[in-house]
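Standup, Tuesday
Yesterday: got the pipeline producing structure tokens again.
Today: sanity-check two examples.
Blockers: none.

Example 1:
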Amino acid sequence: MKTCANCRATKPLEDFPFRDKAAGTYRSECKACMRKPLSVSGPVPLAKRCNRCAVLKQLVDFHAAPRGKYGRTAICKECRNTESATKRDPEKQRAYYQANREKTLAYQQARRADPAVQEADRRRYERRQADPAVRAANVERARLWREAHPWKRREHALNERYGITPAQLDALVEAQGGGCAICKLALESTKTTHIDHDHACCPGKKSCGACVRGVLCHRCNLALGMFDDDPARLRAAAAYLDRRG
């Protein structure tokens, strides 16, 4: 048991946040008091100075902290990220995850299934999206990620729409001789290349992966669609051309 320095209530140690988890020490205020925002007298400024870099920055450049001055941390996001990066040991983190993989996954699944956590995540997302600066930063971060990982977008699109991997697609094209499965012309680019699947198995634009038939150029794929994938109509069209040719 421990007495909170703020509310003076005696509570179990589980109700106090750790000061140093390795040493087993706890903070003087309980979690409930730590979550209460400090009262601020007067108007809240739009900017504050970081305690690390001493640069005057906007409040959106600081993490939210209910107990911090003006509801923000004393250290800006940039300085905090820099400190975290220097303290982080990727090899140690990877080793811990491999040794406690099942425990970590079970904890994550239980946390995601908690209605309170879901509601908190939803509110946090809505609060962040309401900030124009945060939205602009998210858009820019997503653009930079797409430029740095172009293959990830292709991998996700293939798996989501056709149920295959980029390696399976490359093997399929190689088995066709590098060209269209019908006209045998070279496949110029991904924009004019179409993955053909059996619409009797999977109607619509998505495929389960098992009914993928081949890779076609734009003209051949369009022709199959115009003939409704009907072999009889295609043979009749070929016979018509032979007679009239």
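Example 2:
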Amino acid sequence: MIDDHVLITVGANMDGVRTEILHDLIDEKNYFIADIVCMPQYDHLMAQAYSEFLRAIHTRVEQIVMQKNTDIVLNDEHINTFWNNITDIINQYGVGTLTNELKNNDSENYAAFIVSAGPSLDKNVDELKKIQGRAMIMAVDTALKPLLKKGIVPDIIASVDPHKPLSLFESDGFAELPMLVDINYNSEISKMHTGKRFYAWSGESFIKELFKNEFSRLDIIESGGSVACNLLSLAIRSGFKTIVLVGQDLAYPEGKGHSKLSYDNENNIDLKKKKYYEVEDIYGGKIYTENNMNAYRKWFEGTISRYTDIEFIDATEGGAKINGTDIMTLNEAITKCCNGKKTERWREIVNGCAKLLSEDEKEEKIAKLKALPNKLDRLQKELKTGEKKIKRARKAQAKNDIINLKKRIEWYNQD
């Protein structure tokens, strides 16, 4: 391109590139002033593509707002978690390497079962014993205890929440399981975990700059705010052409929040509170949900609509209806997706991935991190000096002293 400020992407297979571009272009500093300009009639001539583009932007803005609100509430905790995980990622693994390994091992001819811990999981969790090896089992952290209690070992688990209670990871069999994690996930979990941890880039400019030469090994995992969203993105990027959702209620059937095996003595939800409202369930009736769960459902629907070459099956057997999915029982889904499939050693494939960094690359990152405190000290001094200059310029402006103001601006710019 002649102009570095212009980026052109064409075609459905550019979705991953567009996601990276949106992460670069729209961030917490500018999302509220970003403008969208559409050439005349293109929103009608290319209605579907334009709608998908708007949805991608909306998803990115929602991510920023949710992350910003979380950061405000948990600021100190997030800072500590972030830096603890920065030192961890240097010794761990990248999602880009993982997705390539799965693609190279015939993932498109198998199904990925994404297991969440909605209340409906209690109906059919035992059915999952039938599929071990004949499909890849990806489980969210809250589903770990229910699965391991039933003797079902997931091929990978995911955790992205910095506040996730450690009690979820105290089951025998957890420690060596591979994990999909986020740079902001609860770093205390790593003290209990001896297996491989796979990190992806989720929009932090610092991470992208630090790993710019190894960025393809990190890759991008889109998220709609829920850990199940991260697993759906992982399954898509890993090349699976059939993805089955299990325990994905996205609602509160009978006031229940999770599988009874996830949390001990979890109280039912008081559905009389105003924040709960009804949406359509998989049976055509009504079920109660709330804003965050409904946002996750909309993210699922938006993502599903973009991948017309993938079959999405909702085998939850309850919960809110997710448009774009084929609804069936888990037993029906297993019969459809697993019968006749040879056993594949998914965990061995995952555990065969190479580390994110070579020893030389690791030493380079460590040197950069060690240099940061001095850089931050210098930056703090520059910011204080800049703050003083701005105050003086504002005083000159208040006095309508144009000549003095011009001198102040020239003095500021020469630094």
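Quick observation on example 2: Residues 375-414 form one domain. The CA atoms of residues 169 and 274 lie 33 Å apart.
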